[in-house]
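Researcher: Next sequence.
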Amino acid sequence: MKRNTTLDITPAQVHELGLREVARIEGEMLQVVQKLGFKDLKSFYASLKTNPDLKPKSRQQILDLYTKYTDQMYAKLPQFFGRLPKAKVIVKPVEEFREKEASGAQYNQGTPDGSRPGQIVVNTGDFANRELMTVETTAYHEGVPGHHMQISIAQELPALPPFRQQLFFTAYVEGWALYSERLGREAGFFQDPYSYYGHLQDEMLRAIRLVCDSGYHYKHWTRQQVVDFFHEHSAISEPEVQSETDRYVAVPGQGLGYKMGQLKILELRHRAEQELGSKLDIRGFHDEVLGAGALPLDVLEERINKWVAEQKAKRGD
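Model: Next structure:
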């Protein structure tokens, strides 16, 4: 757990934090579905199975949506970042022979010399049984301002030795990508309430991981308890619930990195906002988070604390 989160935190604290996050996200989900005319989450979940507008009509439609969301976010990046990646990113389908085993989407990093662009690799297999609600949030996670931006900038930092340019810490890399999904809201996106619900559902998955991973390995939950918690707090499909549960059994602690990393970055941003107030340049904050490559979260915290102190000194506080 400590290796995957890079934090000095106990399993009990992780479990309680997960429960609080699940409750918070459920509250936001309820607000969305009530605006859509549903009285509760269960009636909304039932409607998803019979709503044809939430299913892709073709393989190409899925690819086109990923391209659309990536392009619209690229146009907004200068509002949030001073340093932008030089490397390009493309959207491409998963090879057909990998469709049955591949995830819905993944990021393959480009080469440091730019000879191969970064790739958002999208699974379009069995398209009629996929769903569109999470495409927008996944595009921001895998592409910009998520994995493509963070990894490309790390590779392009000239002062870092090569091993630092390629370094990977789950909590930092996945935490940044999950944090990046929220920037879609700040950029004015997620205009479709179903797409915004999909954004919340993906965040809920990461919160459930805190509860279920610690529940399984610390509180000695049975496998069925993990499955039941998933079904009680989400509309995530049965195959995904089963594969997620297998993941926690096989790779303890890995699933904790996403939410713990996101929450640490949000904590550091909140601290910077409190310390600097209206003087905070969000572009400077994001550049500082990304400006040394992937880091353990405690090292990232020291870096941001130092940056905040320097900003205060510059203005004579």
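Model: The chain has one domain: 2-259. The mean pLDDT is 95.
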